[in-house]
Amino acid sequence: MATAEPTKPLIVLTCTPGQGHVNPIKTLAKALVLEGYEVTAVSSSHYRSAFEDVGCSYVAIQGYGDYWDDDRESKWPDRALLPPGPEQFFYTIEHSFVRVIPDQFAAVQTAIKTLKDKHPDRPVVLLNESAFLGSLPIMKGARGVKPDGTIGIGINPVSLSSVDTAPFGPGLPPPKSPEEVAQYAAMRNQIETVYYGKPQAVFNSILQDLGAEVPPGFCFDAPYLWPDRFLQMCPPSTMYPRSDAPASVRYTGGLPKLPPSPTSSSSALPAWWHEITTPTTPNQDIIFVCQGTVDFDYTHLVLPTLTICASRPNTLVIAVLGQPNATLPSSFPVPDNARVADYIPFDLILPHCSVFVGNGGYGGVQHSIAHGTPMVLAGESEDKTEMCAIAAWAGVAVNLRSGTPSEEALREGIEEVLREGKYREACERIQKEIATFEPIEVIKENIREVVAGVGA
């Protein structure tokens, strides 16, 4: 681990509780530590060791806001009583993201105050993950200590409202005419008023209680508009353009690149790894399927992919299950041309793959593009509907528009990606774009700018 440099600004880095947020933010944290920054991470108590292991100090959220993935059902049992779909989604928005703001705010205050008390002459910069709303009151004058600069960090699809996009969520394409722009504006107004009305009211009330200004505007645009900078961790071509976004919204090209870790060594890989790196037959198709780190119902994608590819000639299928020690149901006969692992780092397997079958998680999509691997995507939970649509718009994926596609739809999607070279060509084009960025340098430059008071 690098030695911290006393001349650098001190960093407070926030992270929404949840493995899908922790994984990329931990990568950012480690990269900053390796660059000599002293980083204090803020998330729930469950993730303390994840950040301390990469060299961070840690402040845990206390009270109502202290939860992790496995707590959700017991902490919010009323959610299960609601119909799946919009009602459950907006319940989650209100309770998991908005009502936790006071506890998140208190933890961020503790982190900033501790650093300022210990190092009164050094600037403190707050790096705020976009789904972590507890830092927003600080940016609008809430009571308490203030950082010397604020930078938003985007690790999910950009949801900032724009005349150039549809309302975020349903996976609709950008408007193509003035009539569609007007239709989308009316739709956005209805969504914000009807569906987000209660979360917005709770958000405004919390701001007021904390002594912050309550400006007009949609609360979920605030993470992009209120910080001094907002850095989206991807190349611009993998998000819809927004001509009306402020100059403070910028792109890094991706997450910072880290040196290889011991867990990425060959000793941690399955015994059959050589079948991927040195195929026994020429022009073999390697199909990789993974449902991410949240959805473990393997009937959604993993089992159907193994089934439909079982008799496909000259094909090797790799299924990664997304959690330690996970296994497939004993009743499922694994085909002869399939290999199954609980976990393999995406950065190791994707360069060898012909196609990635996934559920549209932001991280998986960005990793796949970075390695030039086209995709077949099937997702409809959280922000996955939107990410699947964006990937299809960017030309890097077939979007099956369902979280539980039929075997026939899945087969047709895989065959199309393997048959049509345009998907891989789009990935390779964006790969070249990514190569023009050095993410950690973009982040460091923006830290320097906000400390110096340089406007966007």
TrEMBL record:
Entry keywords, A to Z: Transferase
Q: Could you tell me which SUPFAM superfamilies the record lists for this protein?
A: UDP-Glycosyltransferase/glycogen phosphorylase
GO MF assignments: hexosyltransferase activity; UDP-glycosyltransferase activity
Question: Where on the tree of life does the source sit, at the highest rank?
Answer: Eukaryota
Q: Key word Transferase present in the record?
A: yes
Statement: the UniProt record of this protein carries the keyword Transferase: yes
The UniProt entry, under Pfam families, shows: EryCIII-like_C
Q: Erythromycin biosynthesis protein CIII-like C-terminal domain: which residues?
A: 326-445
InterPro entries per UniProt: EryCIII-like_C, UDP_glucos_trans
PANTHER family documented for this protein: GLYCOSYLTRANSFERASE (PTHR21015:SF22), UDP-N-ACETYLGLUCOSAMINE--N-ACETYLMURAMYL-(PENTAPEPTIDE) PYROPHOSPHORYL-UNDECAPRENOL N-ACETYLGLUCOSAMINE TRANSFERASE 1 (PTHR21015)
The protein, known as: UDP-glucuronosyltransferase 2A3
Species of origin reads: Cercophora scortea
